[in-house]
Amino acid sequence: MAQHIVIVGAGFAGLMAALSAARVRDEKGVSADDLKITVVAPEPALVVRPRLYEREPASMVAPLGELFAATDISFHAGSVETIDHERGTVTVTGSDGDADKIAYDRLILAAGSHGFQPPIPGLAEFGHTVTDHDGAIALDRHLHALADRPDSPGRNTVVVGGGGFTGIEVATEMPARLCEILGQDAPLRVVIVERGPVIAPDMGVEPRPYIEARLRDLGIETMLGAGIARLDKGSVTLENGERIETDTVIWSAGMRASPLTSQLPAERDNLGRIIVDPDLRVPGCPRVFATGDTAKAATDNDGHFSLMSCQHARRLGAFAGHNAAADLLGEPVLPYDQPSYVVCLDLGPDTAIFTRGWSPRSVEITGADAKKVKMEINAVWIYPPAADRKAAFQNALEARTVDF
Fold first, then answer.
1. Rounded to whole angstroms, how far apart are CA atoms 209 and 323?
2. CATH code: domain of residue 54
3. Residue numbers of the domain that contains 101
4. Which of 251, 278, 304 is the last residue of a domain?
5. Which of 34, 70, 219, 291 could serve as 320's disulfide partner, Cβ 3.0–4.6 Å?
6. Is 98 a residue whose pLDDT tops 80?
């Protein structure tokens, strides 16, 4: 009797899960008719979310149709609304509003995450984001439309809420991006607002001075110790009462796992991620695996856990896909591990910083050399493989076995 693996999501984890499951199927000589693999997502495309802070975010999408065809992976267009883990079905709603019920033998939840917006007055109405494709496109249109507005402090000022990885990358992109739109002589102002006592709180002591120096070089201000209290049409007010005239506020602080995680009877962390078993199975749901941003998984034996990052999502997906297929075919499953952790942080048009380790982080490369690494990561490494069966399966294997 034919068996079916259903994968919810076509992001980094979902794509790697599908390719890894197909690789195991191919390696064991099982036909696509006997073990069907279906990806469910609104479109057969990968949104390259780590690049949404860059120019032209509309182009940050990689089509997956030909790759799926080359690897005998089926695609079902729609959004999963409900998961019935007891009956082994998901309900999928298409763009036309019609609902389909799909049965599975193994389910891989790779539905990703979304930007978290706290209930700050005015944020939903006047704030922008780069954490999703539509939001990044809307911000890009807004920035270009600034050129049609009269010169003013509000027009020329961008406030970034949050001094973490995303906030720093979008802020350091802004000076050059705004100069292209408003002209080289525009009196630009870019401000990062961070509630905590330091910028880049997760980067640690060694990298931080380099980051701070780079922000100063770019003329980017940092306001620490007070978060954003409210927004209106032409300004932002901080928790300490300070008001900044601005037409552009970009919120970058915080992500939350897909709400689909709440439909499974498992423990979740404060980000909504399911705390999974070593093989990425959902405790209490033996037919369901969670991966990518929906999973909190131990990366090693030293107390470190996966993060909501492309780096972790790809490897998590590769393990989840391998294990789902292996489980159905009577092969041993593998415990997920990812002992190395690196961060390559973009710091503007010609500079980046590359660090290794959890805590403390050690700085390995800076400046133009680190920027070359960042460009290689963003433009090559994280993109889907070619629509070639052999190359795709090799890519999936390397995602699970090759560490930084």
1. 42
2. 3.50.50.60
3. 3-115+255-340+384-401
4. 251
5. 291
6. yes
